[in-house]
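Fold sample X.
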Amino acid sequence: MDKPLTGVGATYEHSKLLVDSYRRWTGQELVPVENSREKGLEELLFTAPRVILSHGTESDPVLNYGNRMALELWEMSWEQLTGTPSRLTAEPMERAERDRFFTQVTANGYVDNYTGIRISRSGRRFYIVNATVWNLVDEQGIYRGQAATFLDYKYL
């Protein structure tokens, strides 16, 4: 994946992959794309009023994107987040369920209404509610990873 832009989080190409894949699977817009001429698509995603994050295709997938809300929720800098294996966002006891869920997403393209427990860098636990998780597929049909978005979470 391309090197992210400092302060925004993702390249235009990765931003487009997030938005296009979300639209492909759900039929909805992840962010108001009509505003992308005034604000760059990268900024729209980074400042969106919802958590958005993604991981790549490594054997142990590493997070490759998190918008401002994701960085705040997981209490990480961009560099910390994008160096974190995705599985470490869940507590060890939650990882098997998380893995089963991501296998289902891979098979079906996307799943919404996912709910699960996650953990921040400092150990703060939170419950994510009604997340949508989708496969990232580029214009050539190549699988590039998975992404998730959600509005609601509750600290435990």
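Fold sample Y, listed below.
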Amino acid sequence: MMMKVSLLKTGIRVTAVCALALAAATPVQADPGDFGAMPGLWKILVRHVINGKAGKPEVHWHCVDEGADPWTTFAAWTPAEGECTATDQQRRSTSLAWKLTCKGASPASAHVDFDSAKHYTGSVTVEGRGEITQVEGARYAACTSPQD
């Protein structure tokens, strides 16, 4: 009887270890809902930086749905020169950071950082040139219709 109990306990341990190993090997997809930004109508100010000075802001309005993908919602504003591809995306609960590889341009990096669920700042920086774009977003109100 002792032998069966010991084998049973060993089998449970092996199963648990295998389950943990599989969980560790499986890539974890973050739920967009765990990102620290509130849904609603956002006012986004984009400023192009020339010779170290930020220009007049371009105002954009964007309605963010509950559970929206942070990459398509808060990282879509990053204008850089040429056709660009985002790589090396790093996401935390209150920030996004990524690299930009652009045709015919120097490598760039971008980020957005939330200081609250209703406000963020960010920028695009080009290697060898410095900051070329600044962005600031603030949640303004609830969305009232899909056209917001």
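Sample Y note: The CA atoms of residues 35 and 93 lie 5 Å apart.
Also: The domain at 35-141 is CATH 2.40.160 (Porin).
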